[in-house]
Amino acid sequence: MANSMVVVTAHVGDFVWRCGGAMALHAQRGVPVHLVCLSYGENGESNSAWKGDTQREAVKAQRHAEAQAAAQILGVSSVDFHDLGDYPLPDSPDAVRRISETLRRTKPSVVLTHPEHDPSNLDHCRTFEMTLRARMQAMAPGHGADFVVPPQVLCFEPHQTELCGFKPNVLLDITEVWERKWQAMQAMPTQSNLWAYYERVALQRGAQAGRRGKTAGTRYGEAYQSIFPAVVSALME
């Protein structure tokens, strides 16, 4: 079983929609799942929270509470909020260092994050780059003797795949944990407009995974694109 899973997202809602199933599934199987949220998404991803004379700190507090509740539902072991701000998310060498320290501490076999290209949301692109920089730093012995075996990086599905050149090569059956993902989605009322959308995405990916014939009864799925080649001892199971 994997040592751990680390998820790095630009905004607090991203992990629920994009990879909540993977997080719940692996947590259920005993894998420690660690979450890093670089911003609260208070500027660009919390529209319904801004009412009247609402203050920024109140919006951030609301999104913090939502993320904590969703993470608990999914079985997350730890959450690290960086509070960098969003729209735009700034480049942060300190965030790279902190992510790298998380990788060294948790020694993950896989890191989940945004894809490299997303012209509709450049915060996601910056998160991808900072995550890979952190991975590079974590695997370098010159930064400390606790350097890690390079983990695989899987990019989760973006909101608009057609704009991002997203070509998934991994389909994950999340049927057995779908209800937990759905509950985690509902723990994000600030973005309730996305609930139905991501249910449709999960159903579509589940239908695609079901056609592969690996498991019976596949209904819900998530899609991922690996960044690095898989090392295998055979080409057939």
UniProtKB/TrEMBL annotation:
Keyword field: Lyase
What name has this protein been given in UniProt? 4-oxalmesaconate hydratase
Organism field = Achromobacter mucicolens
| Lineage of origin | Bacteria, Pseudomonadati, Pseudomonadota, Betaproteobacteria, Burkholderiales
Give this protein's Gene Ontology molecular function annotations: 4-oxalmesaconate hydratase activity
Q: Which Pfam families match?
A: PIG-L
Q: What is its EC number?
A: 4.2.1.83
